[in-house]
Amino acid sequence: MLVDFHSHILPGIDDGAKNIEESIKILDMMSETGVDLVYCTPHFYPHEMSVDRFLERRRQAYGKIVPYLKPHHPRLKMGAEVLMSRSMLTREVLEKLKLEGTDFVLLEMPYIHFSQNTYDGVADIADMDGVKVLIAHIERYLVANSEAEVMRLMEGENILGQINCTSLRKMGDRHRCMNFIKNGCVQALGTDYHRIERGYALLDEGISILKRKLSRAAFERIIQSSEMIAENCDVDEILDI
To answer: 3-235 domain in CATH 3.20.20.140?
Structure first.
């Protein structure tokens, strides 16, 4: 099963797909790549909107495309890309933002140099009963942090990592992604797909690159761990494969 854990394909809810037509075109492209499941993860900024208002807007956006979904399209499940906030993300809020059918929350970090408060905040969320953390596009935080500082995010319990397929295109970004993979920090892939005009890499392109660059065992480990996240397996079990 091929799973895209990170997308912005719901129409008009954030800076992703602009309208219904674009959402369906993206799904048409995704279906051609053999993707089985896509999590719809619009941005949730806790300082801008209540979680209930966000859920209503997400429900409305999904409802707009339902009549146009085709049998060959990937299955869609709901989620959110949740901006990390130590003070505003309570367990009650996070419970409503989990990737559908799992206890995982796709958590976006701030694009600044991580402070101790950042690390403590991630650990606090991962320690919440019934909550597991999947950190979104870990390679993007290298703009303000070293590889070691990003990998430190993964040291706590109940924390896994996701990378974007587009980041595998350029040699420098690819090298950094490979380092994260070799250090056990990557368990999931995503397109982070927003707009067609921006030319994002689809899942098949990322998978093709990983197949060439990784050992067979390392490649299969990522595919299997993705499936296990979607099945809501324990983090320790996922890390042990």
So the answer is: yes
